Amino acid sequence: MSSTPRYTHALLILAGMIWGTSFVAGKLGVEATDPFLFTVLRAVFSAISIIPFFFLYKFDYSMFKSKALWGVALLNAMGILLQNVGLTQTTASNTVLLIDINVVIVAVLASVVLKERLNRRIVIGLVLGMAGVGLIATKGDLTNLGGGNFVGDMLVFMAGVSWAFYIVFTTRELKKGYSLLYLTCTVVMQTSLLAIPISMPMISDYTLGASSVLLAIYTGVFCTTVAFLLYNVGLKSLGATTTSIILLVEMVFGLLFSFILLGERPDMMTVIGGALILAAIMIISIKGLDRARRNRSAKT
User: Fold this and answer.
1) CA dihedral 164, 289, 174, 97 (to 10 degrees)
2) Is 123 within a domain?
3) Are 159 and 176 in contact (CB under 8 A)?
4) Is residue 152 part of a domain?
5) Is 275 within a domain?
6) Three-state SS string across the chain, please?
């Protein structure tokens, strides 16, 4: 019986913490810089930071010929772009909740794409999660539909949906036998190569300050390259439980940093909606934990 190295959990918590800070860093970045320009800068620094891995390892460059991986990278690029644009019209704390609901969407998509079983627990999680999204986006009042915050909330929610598709299709590609490190490096580079030409034509203001560059470096290097590499180390050891652990840690740190660094205090509807989303995530997470226990039992 093999045990998971203790450092693996520490790496996962660190990855979750880094991703938790990305919401605040992104919010500060798009407040000081055009969101499309910020996306380009993040993509550039992300690409630069991943280049050394192509020389440190015997890289399989044929992976760049895979149309499926380009599709996965496009989903990732759209997620980043939608989040950055959405953050100009909503809060970082709302963004944390509306993006992290994607664990529920992943469970539903997995039943279709990966042929995983869609059970009652997933359906309950989906209903609770969508109710939470509705409360946060509308504040319990349908007259808010179409307002600025609503548009921002829907943009970051769509970013979460894009990343849900990204997670499911990445999982499908990994089942084909790709190296986890090679796939991560390839997709990170492809994401940058797609995000830059998509965002460039939409930039309306090229004003750039030192803080914007530093934030772009942080989100590009740490929130993209470093966090994904840390996550993948844990993925090898923890498998099905990883998404649940990371998502809950990311939510906690994301909301905490939004409160401490931005002074964001959610209203009552956001608290109720967030509680519904958290409940949905925990319900779906139990499914992953149960499956992981069964897999370990079968191996012993």
Assistant:
1) 20
2) no
3) no
4) yes
5) no
6) CCCCCHHHHHHHHHHHHHHHHHHHHHHHHHHHCCHHHHHHHHHHHHHHHHHHHHHHCCCCHHHHHCHHHHHHHHHHHHHHHHHHHHCCCCCHHHHHHHHHCHHHHHHHHHHHHCCCCCCHHHHHHHHHHHHHHHHHHHCCCHHHCCCHHHHHHHHHHHHHHHHHHHHHHHHHHHCCCCCHHHHHHHHHHHHHHHHHHHHHHHCCCCCCCHHHHHHHHHHHHHHHHHHHHHHHHHHHHHHHHHHHHHHHHHHHHHHHHHHHHHCCCCCHHHHHHHHHHHHHHHHHHHHHHHHHHHHHHHHC
By the 8 A CB rule, do 140 and 269 touch? yes
The pLDDT profile of the chain, 300 residues, written as one tens digit per residue, is 445 556 677 777 888 889 989 999 999 999 999 999 999 999 999 999 999 999 888 888 889 999 999 999 999 999 999 999 999 998 888 888 888 887 778 878 888 887 777 777 778 877 888 888 778 767 666 555 555 588 898 999 999 999 989 988 888 888 888 888 888 899 999 999 999 999 999 999 999 989 999 999 999 999 999 988 887 666 555 544 455 556 677 888 888 888 888 888 878 888 888 888 888 877 776 655 455 444 444 443
Nearest-10 crossing angle of helices 210-217, 6-32: 150
What single-letter amino acid sits at 205?
Answer: D
Please, what is the angle between helix 35-56 and helix 210-217, to 10°? 40
Domain that holds residue 49: 6-118+148-264
143, 200 Cβ separation under 8 angstroms: no
pTM assigned to the model: 0.83
277 part of a folded domain: no
- The total domain count for the chain is 1
